[in-house]
What does this fold into?
Amino acid sequence: MFSFVVQRLATGVVTLFGVAVMVFVIMRVIPGDAAVMLSGAGAGVVSEEELAQVRSKMGLDRPLVVQFGDWAGHVATFDLGTSLRTGNPVAQDIARRFPYTAQIVVMATLIAVCLGIPAGVLSARYAGTWIDRTLQAVSIGGLAAPSFWIGLILILGLVALFQWSAPLFWEPFWVSPGKSLAQLFWPALAVGLRQLALVARMTRSIMLEVLGEDYIRTARAKGLSEWNVVVRHGLSNGLLPVVTLIGFEFSALFGGLIITEAVFSVPGLGQYVVASILNRDYPAAQGIVLVLAGIVVLGNLTVDLIYGWLDPRTRVRVAQ
It folds into this structure.
């Protein structure tokens, strides 16, 4: 298991280095200049000499390789730099916004798992009946509707029916758990519906295949209850692909909440990414992209570990 984890961590480090190079280069080649944005030279009130001084002060007049080496060296010591827009350490800005995004992701995943897996099992167990057709219609609708559109419909419905509107001040979970859960429930639901549909359809497909296996017929012939046959023998053997999907979607959600957070005005990482890119805030944009990539790497590592725990054959194959 140790070599399994080390191998995955080494792969993750290489991946993060590649992401660091890509985001650094992309931020330098897209149109716009951080020095112009910061100094206000775009309005024509700053001379070329003053602009050159600003660029020199920010280190933007140095070769790109030197700039990257300097930034990578600070990142290696967990220093993501200082935001050009807010003046705060990037790590501090991320730490302040991370809890809102993480809470939405966790709540959306719980909604998807708690409702999606039972729906998929039920749909496979009663395949071809009205239960199966109804659940399939709902899951296809969840897949077809974009999260931001669901969010807009939710907001309009809540305003029309309950005079609800997005709060101006969002409570962190550790300050007021109940209020925080109530505030972020609707953004989580808007995102979680698509995840729910994905999990339900994947579970249904896997369970249809598993329930046709010989050992399932043997279990039924032994007189086991239908609950034992479907859940204990069927679901436990068909969970691996579903776990993979959930793990991938969980980590991918951290970078996929930009529009949903904008719709509900949630002060999370998504809004921070957009503001950083629009203002050419290089340290902030590079730092947040690297953090999101790290979350994806850790998410995949967690899935691999769960995979190895559920199916020991994967650990043996890696060890060989």
